[in-house]
Amino acid sequence: MTAPRIAGIAMTPMGKQPGASVKQLTAQAVSAALADAGIGSDRIEAAWFANTRQPMLEGQNTIRGQIALREAGIEGIPIVNVENACASGSTALWQAAAHIRAGLCETALVVGAEKMFFPDRADAVAAAFRGGTDIARIDEVHAAVDRLAAELIPEDQRSGAATRSFFMDSYAAFARLHMKTFGSTQRQLAAIAAKNHDHSALNPLAQYQKPMSIEEVLADKLIVWPFTRSMCAPISDGAAALVLMADSAVPQAARARAVSLRGISLLSATSRAPEAFDQHVGARTARAAYELAGISPEDIDVAEVHDATAYAELQQTENLGLCLPGEGGVYAEAGHTRLGGRTPVNPSGGLVSKGHPVGATGIAQLFELVTQLRGEAGRRQVDGARIAVAENGGGFLDVEEGATVVSVLEAPAS
Fold first, then answer.
1. I want to staple 260 with a disulfide (CB 3.0 to 4.6 A). Which of 3, 14, 292, 293 is the partner?
2. Among residues 99, 142, 178, 356, which one is catalytic?
């Protein structure tokens, strides 16, 4: 069956937007995506809406999509609300693609929108993040991951885990385990973060647009060793939307810019030993997506990965097969993931610098890749990009993300 096409896509600026509502962000992204596809809202036959924070932070639940999309002029059609942690947006795409492949519709709208910046509700924001794991076991799991390679933490940089984020502590623990197992370093993590801050300086929609050196990243405020603030994704507001169409439904005027969704896979966590890096959910999902798309890692020209921390990018470049297991830090430090390198990763600036509005992140990653595959990325353009891959993971179950989606895109035929 012919792959469905992304005929239109858009995203709002990312960042702290205290005056913007989920409805407003959604309407902005949807209007721009429809215009990009060259169609009106009457062409949309079904819609998927990804959001994770409104129930906890605003009390808006159950029919979030129907409410937000009505403001964007979308109503009366099937609308599905999707929540799958940070992988919500890409999970919505996975569902919409299956719907089109099944012949249930020809034109679908996929939207992710998130309002996370509430300066007067910091405790509620923190509680929302804690809910992304098994809360009945959170203390047990927190204690276990906190012990992973704890001997690597400098004596003067230890502090009580109760004052920190479960997710940042988990990522830090797995970073230390990688260091202990493979010899990766804090400086390599800083190189990854600095690269992303440099990339985001070329992205007018990014939350942060200031280049940073490795030394500046290392000198930033410590969050939990080995992470400084510049290595961690910020709180963000934003939205992204795309129009997915059956190949036969793409208007002739849009075909020259319609990007193919060659393969997409969604998998969940398994019970495994922390040291079984080759069985990480990201690696398993990548292998499944590559098989569906008929590609190998050598075919990939550009990637966007879920760098909630700099270590997550290191890990995911290995999971995607862009480098050998254990060599993600060396690969990044050598400049291979920079613009102009062997396989640029996160030319958008990634989550650590572009921003991370949870429900919108998966679609925002695809916005960057579609822009790259159309040759429209300006100063951050990857020359000759034809195959792009996005990895989007969310939540935590013991030693890995609870859900991960990997998408493979192909540039329009020239």
1. 3
2. 356
